[in-house]
Amino acid sequence: DDDDDIPQLSSHTLAALQEFYLEQQQREGMKTSQGFNQYSIGAIEEDWQLSQFWYSDETASCLANEAVVAAGKGGRIACVSAPSVYQKLKEQDGKDFSVCILEYDRRFSVYGEEFIFYDYNHPLNLPEDLLPHSFDIVIADPPYLSEECLQKTAETIKYLTKGKILLCTGAIMEEQAAKLLGVKICRFIPKHSRNLANEFRCYVNYASGLD
């Protein structure tokens, strides 16, 4: 019976499909290989299922520059769930600071020893060599707009920072952010490469250049 036949791809279509997948793999490989675009925003694409939304190039640059100034010469910077700021910081080769990225998405392990796997559900499940209060500034962007997520991320922030905090989250979290971390809203309004439905703001607990 012809109805029982399983559709087969022609050899030409199959070859074209294989070529497409090969090109796709090569593109992904180029994105994560050592090269000029390794740290470019978008080199690793957003995964909305992980609630990832990259900052615009301008916003990422502004936040990265603020972190460098706040950290000071030879300073240490931690980016908690803020990979696009980490990428901008890494573009500044030769600058006198060090940086690491704490991130749930293991694709960022391409950045080597500076990558630390991080799950906000276990805020203090961190490597033993990540000493408390060892970072001059912590930049954090909790993945979800919920009190629980902010509360747990705040535990991580307070563990890592020597004092300075730069938090990026929704405007609706202002009261909770002040209560948990003692941060105040800045005039600077961060933007994303794709528009978000929720109003987004920056918060700090020190005299910053974002006002």
From TrEMBL:
<dbReference type="GO" id="GO:0003676">
    <property type="term" value="F:nucleic acid binding"/>
</dbReference>
<dbReference type="GO" id="GO:0032259">
    <property type="term" value="P:methylation"/>
</dbReference>
<dbReference type="InterPro" id="IPR002052">
    <property type="entry name" value="DNA_methylase_N6_adenine_CS"/>
</dbReference>
<protein>
    <submittedName>
        <fullName>EFMT1 methyltransferase</fullName>
    </submittedName>
</protein>
<dbReference type="Pfam" id="PF10237">
    <property type="entry name" value="N6-adenineMlase"/>
</dbReference>
<keyword id="KW-0489">Methyltransferase</keyword>
<dbReference type="InterPro" id="IPR041370">
    <property type="entry name" value="Mlase_EEF1AKMT1/ZCCHC4"/>
</dbReference>
<keyword id="KW-0963">Cytoplasm</keyword>
<dbReference type="GO" id="GO:0016279">
    <property type="term" value="F:protein-lysine N-methyltransferase activity"/>
</dbReference>
<keyword id="KW-0808">Transferase</keyword>
<dbReference type="GO" id="GO:0005737">
    <property type="term" value="C:cytoplasm"/>
</dbReference>
<dbReference type="InterPro" id="IPR019369">
    <property type="entry name" value="Efm5/EEF1AKMT1"/>
</dbReference>
<dbReference type="InterPro" id="IPR029063">
    <property type="entry name" value="SAM-dependent_MTases_sf"/>
</dbReference>
